[in-house]
Fold these 2 entries.
Entry 1:
Amino acid sequence: MKQLSIVVPCYNEAVTLPKLYQEVQQQCLPLAVRVEYVLVDDGSTDTTLSVMKTLAAKNTAVHYLSFSRHFGKEAALYAGLQTATGAYVVVMDADLQDPPELLPQMLTKLQSGAWDCVAARRTDRRGEGKVRSFLSNSFYQVINHASKTQFVSGVRDFRMMTRQMVDAVLALPEYTRFSKGIFSWVGYRTTYVSYPNQHRVAGESSWNIWNLFKYAADGIFDFSQLPLDLSVWIGLASFVMSLIGLLYIILRYVLVPASSVSGWASTICIIMLFGGVQLLCIGIIGKYIGKIYLQVKRRPLYLVKERH
Ligand code: UDP
Ligand code: MG
């Protein structure tokens, strides 16, 4: 019998985790696979770890690891994938926003051999704020123009993959991990199952608008060179404009010598404008250098304090 690993990153999910476990058990019982749980405690400050311990005491198929501190969801996902041993691996959130009812059909699709990955896709954004939906949609438009990697709107991290694809994902050595992009970048045959948006069963999302904004920016910087290209084009445009301006000044000086009047205000404005553009471009380059710096330091993505 093949094994299905269920990887769950958890950050303060003491309330939701038992509910998830119960639902997943129910869905997986009739399936012809051995189920293994890999629960990753991302430095939770509540009793998530003791909940994991209780589950592990009840069921020997439950494995957990606990980070030395909060490292973020991407690190937790990576740690979970590294630990999972199944022929099939599914990644899901602890808050039941990724419905376990989809597991049987995902598995059937994967077992048919026609696909390497089955991802769940929300058909709507019901219950999500208007501003948040608008920003999300804008992000997908920008990144799909900027990057060769395709990003599908409404796809969460909830997906079931074959061992081959998981190994490919793990083989990417990047430090700043943007999973949405990595899953798409590695390729393989991906199909989607649709479901209506779900609410969290309990607790609160740990993402606010500012975090999401930084996450989106990371995606754009990690998977495209659009910001660098933009700064080159802005630089080129201002160079051409200043050449035209220079030509105009020289011509005016030659043709109508008496007309040269000094204009301080406009000069200062233009200096400030180009000073700003230069700082912006340096900032963009700095952002990429920062990423290179993080990468060359080769710090581990996470540290484990306890594992079972
Ligand atoms: N999560 C995590 N580390 C974090 C943030 C979130 O491990 O820093 C986990 C969280 O416990 C949950 C999943 O990632 O299982 C999704 O988190 P959340 O529900 O807060 O995000 P949203 O559903 O709003 O995208
Ligand atoms: Mg959630």
Entry 2:
Amino acid sequence: MDFQYLADLLFPNVTMTPEEVEAKYPERNLPEGAKVTRFAPSPTGFVHFGGMYQAIVDERLAHQSGGVFYLRIEDTDGQREIAGAVDALLKTLETYGVSYDEGVEIAEDGTIRDKGDYGPYKQSQRADLYHVFAKKLVAEGKAYPCFTTEEELEEIQQADKKAEIKNTDWHVAAEQKRAAMLAQRNFTIEEVEEHLKAGDPFVLRILANGDPENKTKFTDLVKGNLEVPENDEDFVLLKSDGIPTYHFAHAVDDHLMKTTHVIRGEDWLPSLPKHIQLFRYLGFKMPKYLHTAQILKSDENGGKKKLSKRDMGAKMDDYRSMGYATECVWEYILTLLNSNFEEWHAQNAAKSYLDFPFNIKKMSVSGCLFDFNKLNDVSKNVLSKLTADEIYEKTVDWAAEFDPEFHALLTADPAYTKKIFAIGRGGKKPRKDYATFREIRPFIDFFYDDLFKMKEEYPEKFAKEDVRAVLEGFAETYNAADDMNAWFEKIQKIGEALGYTADMKAYKADPEAFKGNVADVSMFIRIAVTGKQNSPDMYAVMQVLGEDRVLARVKSALAAL
Ligand code: GLU
């Protein structure tokens, strides 16, 4: 067979040579050790948590090493692109501050354009490039056209699956089709020409020469040393419409774009034999690979299952509406990626999470457990360390989009709102009251007369008269100018007069000897003023509310008793 002739026959319009293509994609001029990584999502319209996890690894490895992180849109999959999917994807990356150096971006006029010298960055615009290398493989006798139709292929696959139909007519026919398919590996030029003349569509298959009994040593940077069988499957390189499969596009793109580290999900591990063969056939040096562990979640039966796209927390955009700050999600992902992150952060409190020396060696090898409780812990911690101004700005920004009514209140008197946010903040042990912006409103709503309501009752075990007496005593003596001690002494006195001791030791020793203690007295006042049994420090709360509001609340509580 004259393979060059076959190549010209199949790709008459491909005139560029592989060398000419290579010349357009020179080695990148980067310092020693710099990594080139890429995030390569399919434009389905949303970024999955597992995708963000990978994108963060990409971003960190590239930027920590002075390298390049680029974005490639993998839009070769059968279904046509969902309108706006790329925009949505870019928006998510921007929201999370995952900054890439090259890729696609949205121009001023709203169209999507390339930035960077190694494009196009959308696979659908790279057909010419794939065809150059496809032609080369055909010319070297490493790939061949296969005219077996989709339907025939389906039948052959069914024959493999259904053992019970063995030896039926149907099975025999399917086996004949399989034989006919395999025979195409050795087609003569005349046979190929005949099909082409008839206008028969074809896919381009690799001519696999591997023996799965032979194993290739392979080191994955996360999974460690692996033994990968050689590939003996004539897998498809180009589909009948000339669009490449993932495998072929991966080899051509990552080679030309000079990727040094491929970070992708472990579901691609079984495809490694194909990729090793393809890179060898093409004469390309393989990049390094990091196959990331699946993201798992606990299921109802105490087991673990894959975080699927229908699960809460699977879509990155949902975190924003749930009210998580982007940096909280980042920090949570870092805790999943490197188990020493939290310890590092505790020791380097003043540093940004972006200063953390992310290390591939500390990545989890098998499943990574997604857990809202842990996310909430991390979030509470992160939010507690913000200044009042910072949390104010972020909450306002979030509420503008998700809770306009709350937004109006927050911004009506910024100085007042900031005083609310300042309570319990800034010291050594800041309060950790909320994990999300969504939780802030129910937590601080009592500060606003428009939102204030009695959420909890006075516990029934206390006599109404006592509650009344406490509130009356408080209303008579409260003076916002009192310092904390003076304020507390007054409350103690009110309680003592009613048989509520301020001596906690005595109370603990013999609770029956008292009606209650000073904490109960404070609780009556707290419920009257905040509508709840729990709140931050009452003295601080009252200082922010101001004397008029405090007294008005106590008076209306008395009226309602
Ligand atoms: N488009 C592929 C995916 O979404 C990318 C895999 C890779 O990063 O190579 O799974």
